[in-house]
Amino acid sequence: MDVSCGFQDSYRHQMTDWTGAGRTTAELYLRMAGHELHGISPSYEALCHAVSDSRAVCALLDQLPSGKRQPNLLLGAVRFLGGPVGDPAAFLSFVTSGWDGVAETMMTHRTQTNEPGRCATLLPLLASLPQPLALVEVGASAGLCLYPDKYSYRYSTSRGEHRLGDGEVLLSCSVTGPAPLPDHLPEVLWRAGLDLNPLQVNLADDRRWLASLIWPEQVDRAERLDLALAVVAADPPRLDTGDLLTDLPGLLADAPPDATVVVFHSAVLAYLNKEQRNRFTEVIRELRRSRVIHWVSNEAPGVISGADLDPRPQGRFILAHDQVPVAVTGPHGHSLAWVP
Ligand SMILES: C[S@@+](CC[C@H](N)C(=O)[O-])C[C@H]1O[C@@H](n2cnc3c(N)ncnc32)[C@H](O)[C@@H]1O
């Protein structure tokens, strides 16, 4: 694991510039505390305030490449190393006294939060496509979103609950608007993922890293992660190491001809700059010359060209089908507001 990237993956995610470009380290941590952690993770909010006030820790972080200074990476690294996250003074002392280990962990890891809850927001769209499906996820992390057919769902609507599936991982989602809630789970004939650094559900360190990326107060997400890891570990996906800009054609070449191909991604294209995002659109366009491909994106507003809404939803993602917005979604899958 060795590439610098990551973004602040939170309910309030608003395209924070995760590279930290143009901000001092102190500003980066202060912004994280006020904009993303406030009201959600009091413990991390206090830690980020403490870091922004600590010249010593900011000076250490400044030794790292700018993309590696990001708060979620430092916080995850300290958790991963078993450091204290409940007391700001103890946290700062752990970071300064154990800096070599902290820096090494930050340099060799990346923020790769894998949120299976996002399947609840993808499901209605996936189930509405001709079945069976060949699912290809770019930026798959450990591939937990490749298993929408293995989870169960509880959708809360104004007309009551809509339940689906009997898998052990129950994903709850509140729904507004005319979402086509399906009666059947999608049929997944083939699934595969692509990531710069795929995580392996059967590797203890990778599982622990994924758990370390969940903020301490988000106990429900941690429990869901554990359950989903167990489901996926029983039948791990094919995960290729590669770049979504260059390695998608090779992966797609193996998709079975008798399935509807869906290329999807969530919380991924924010890692790319504008020019790279445009190139990805070209990649999809090129692939479509030889095969029908459904492109499903679940990204922050403004990330996918054409797939935007006015006004832009705050702290939400936009679910789009072939660059046409179909819903506004909770970034961790907790809500789905179908666009009428
Ligand atoms: C925040 S995680 C999201 C994982 C998963 N899509 C989900 O929704 O739970 C973003 C993932 O995108 C991957 N990624 C970022 N840029 C990439 C690229 N150019 N090609 C392939 N994967 C990339 C990262 O390694 C990381 O695993």
How would you describe the overall organization of this protein?
The structure is a single chain. The protein is 34% helix and 19% strand. It is built from eleven helices and eleven strands. An eleven-stranded mixed beta sheet has the order 3-2-4-11-10-9-8-7-1-5-6. The site of S-adenosylmethionine (SAM) has 25 residues, from strand 5 and strand 7.
Layout of strands and helices, then pairs:
Elements: H1 25-37, H2 42-53, H3 55-61, H4 71-80, H5 88-97, H6 99-108, H7 119-128, E1 133-138, E2 152-157, E3 160-164, E4 170-176, E5 188-195, H8 204-212, H9 219-233, E6 238-241, H10 248-252, E7 260-266, H11 274-287, E8 293-299, E9 317-321, E10 324-329, E11 335-338
Parallel strand pairs: 1-5, 1-7, 2-4, 4-11, 5-6, 7-8
Antiparallel strand pairs: 2-3, 8-9, 9-10, 10-11
Helix pairs in contact: 1-2, 2-5, 4-6, 4-8
S-adenosylmethionine binds at residues 5, 9, 110, 112-115, 118, 138-141, 145, 194-197, 243-245, 265-268, 271.
